[in-house]
Specification:
Blueprint lengths: L9 H9 L31 H4 L4 H6 L1 E6 L2 E2 L3 E3 L5 E2 L1 H12 L3 E6 L2 H9 L5 E2 L7 H4 L2 E16 L16 E4 L3 H16 L10 E3 L2 H9 L5 E5 H10 L4 E18 L3 H16 L1 H8 L18
Helix pairs in contact: 4-10, 4-11
Length: 307
């Protein structure tokens, strides 16, 4: 299960992506880049649904807005563009949910670990920051599911290193420092390789502080394969214009949840808004804009964690 943790150095990856360009150089000083329309495509404006707006708590309705907290460090879900604006899939979803409820979204950047305490203290109405829905979190807040994510595998187009996503023994694997993928190499993959009498992943994986550097190491051929959360891999494949490809299936999938105060009437309103966005096509448009439609789900539920 992917439990979102804070990533190091968020600004570098966000700034590169925000410019619509991901540099894919090797060790030389020359460079090439590709452009993407992600982050700029128009999304249909959802109509307000009166029956859902009627579910809102009186104070939220009176304010006319939803204060939404996000840790803008995790492209393409939430990050800062070149102008310092908070953008991403979760940001567009937050705005669409608010519009469906007849409100506007005020998205605030916050440290990831402070968001749930901020929800319980009524500092924020919603938390949208790639939160995995877990039983532990459901004990203190409600989670409205809207996306599915796990670990995905990417290689250079054509898979020149002949990587088997189910057998990474002996392969040079790029991962971001501090992620569950880095932990998986240490705690799961390499012990399994040793038990099978196979060479382990060198260095316990090549670890980089920035996801940009992970991607660039793969494109430049310094590593054979990279592991990352599924929407991050999907977006990297899109941004590199066909230089990378995704192989195998997404593993350890679990739902992302919108964080809402426990037992708040806002929970059902938000779930209804997400359901409405799924029905009217806005949800699909948002995921397609950011290249993460592989994580789409057909139903939003309240507190849908399995573990």
């Amino acid at each position: 299960m992917r439990i979102r943790t804070r990533r190091s150095g968020p600004a570098g990856f966000g700034a590169l992506l925000a410019a619509g360009t991901l540099v894919v150089t090797g060790c030389s000083s020359s460079s090439s880049s590709t452009s993407s329309s992600a982050g700029s495509s128009a999304i249909p404006t959802p109509s307000a649904v009166a029956s859902l707006a009627s579910l809102l708590p009186a104070d939220v309705k009176a304010s006319g807005k939803l204060v939404v907290a996000t840790d803008a460090s995790y492209a393409p879900n939430e990050f800062k563009d070149a102008n310092g604006n908070i953008v991403g899939m979760d940001v567009d979803m937050a705005k669409a949910v608010a519009q469906t409820l007849g409100l506007t979204a005020e998205v605030q950047n916050a440290d990831f670990t402070s968001i749930i305490p901020g929800i319980t203290a009524n500092k924020y109405q919603l938390g949208m920051s790639s939160f995995t829905d877990t039983k532990d979190r459901e004990a203190t807040v409600d989670m409205v599911t809207y996306f599915s994510a796990g670990t995905s595998t990417a290689v250079k187009a054509g898979n020149p290193a002949n990587v088997d996503p189910n057998d990474l023994c002996g392969k040079k694997v790029a991962v971001q420092t501090g992620t569950t993928q880095a932990d998986e190499i240490t705690n799961v993959i390499n012990p399994a390789c040793q038990k099978a009498g196979k060479p382990t992943v060198p260095n316990g994986g090549d670890k980089f502080d920035l996801q940009t550097d992970v991607t660039q190491a793969l494109v430049a051929g310094r590593d054979d394969v990279m592991l990352a959360d599924s929407p991050v891999v999907d977006y990297a494949v899109q941004q590199t214009g066909g230089q990378l490809e995704k192989i195998g299936s997404t593993t350890d999938t679990a739902p992302y949840g919108i964080v809402v105060a426990k037992n708040s009437p806002l929970t059902k309103a938000v779930q209804g808004a997400v359901t409405s966005l799924m029905a009217d096509g806005v949800y699909k448009s948002i995921l397609t804009k950011w290249g993460v439609q592989a994580g789409s789900v057909n139903q939003s539920v309240i507190n849908g964690a399995s573990s």
